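Customer escalation, tier 2.

The customer says the design service returned an amino acid string that "doesn't look like it belongs to this structure." They asked us to rerun it and document both sides in this ticket. The original structure tokens are below, unchanged.
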């Protein structure tokens, strides 16, 4: 192996790793899929999914395979479209994430994160966006792991605006907590240029076709943007700047 001398002043480009931790297959595409696609262009994105979505509604007509297996495959295909390197399933039952498995789930997440050593963790905001208890559990448990994980420098909480939360409320089957005001949101990612990628990823979730149509119709009324709260262990400003740079598609410094 030849050791090339480092050029004075040259910066070594470092690929960053992001671990996105979700509760169900489809949380990635229906949620921050545009951001994942943008980030994955020059960095490494991994998905950890706590369940296989076994309890979801089923839009399929023929049902030879279990819904969990089908939905796991849908997530793998969606992740491929978004540019995700690998999907890890944590194999819990949909709807069963709770205090009783808190530290067990935290342990499984921590073991995977130790292997992929992400600088960035992404998950649901603490109210779980839609209020689904599985989402809230994943948010809390991911935050617990993040605080203790050396090398994890920043956590991004995917959230929605107040207006979007209001629009989602109509006819939804559970209580939707309030969204966030613009001045509470730290990072806005414009997803117009990756919108087609996000929609293709969404369409891979064919067993959830009932949701896809509803979400796409609602999305027409809002700007193509995804929103995050950002918390960093050190130097929040630096991370905000770095992530804004990466996700705006500008050259990574
Ligand atoms: Zn979900």
């Amino acid at each position: 192996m030849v050791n090339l001398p480092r050029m004075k002043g040259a910066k070594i480009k470092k690929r960053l790793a992001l671990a996105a931790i979700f509760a169900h297959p489809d949380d990635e595409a229906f949620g921050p899929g545009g951001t994942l696609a943008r980030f994955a262009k020059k960095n490494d994105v991994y998905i950890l999914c706590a369940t296989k979505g076994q309890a979801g509604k089923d839009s399929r007509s023929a049902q030879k395979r279990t819904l969990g297996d089908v939905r796991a495959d849908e997530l793998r295909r969606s992740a491929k479209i978004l540019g995700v390197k690998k999907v890890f399933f944590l194999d819990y039952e949909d709807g069963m994430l709770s205090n009783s498995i808190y530290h067990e789930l935290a342990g499984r997440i921590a073991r995977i994160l130790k292997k992929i050593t992400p600088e960035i963790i992404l998950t649901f905001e603490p109210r779980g966006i839609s209020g689904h208890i599985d989402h809230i559990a994943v948010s809390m448990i991911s935050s617990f792991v993040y605080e203790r994980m050396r090398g994890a420098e920043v956590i991004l909480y995917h959230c929605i605006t107040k207006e979007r939360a209001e629009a989602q409320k109509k006819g939804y089957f559970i209580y939707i907590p309030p969204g966030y005001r613009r001045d509470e949101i730290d990072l806005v990612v414009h997803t117009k240029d990756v919108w087609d990628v996000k929609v293709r990823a969404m369409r891979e979730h064919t067993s959830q076709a009932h949701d896809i149509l509803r979400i796409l119709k609602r999305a027409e009324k809002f700007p193509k943007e995804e929103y995050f709260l950002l918390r960093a262990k050190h130097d929040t400003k630096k991370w905000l700047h770095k992530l804004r740079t990466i996700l705006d598609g500008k050259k990574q410094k």
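Tier 2 assessment: The sequence is consistent with the input. The first helix runs from residue 27 to 30. Strands lie at 17-22, 44-51, 86-92, 120-124, 154-159, 187-190, 225-232. Sent an explanation to the customer and offered a walkthrough call.
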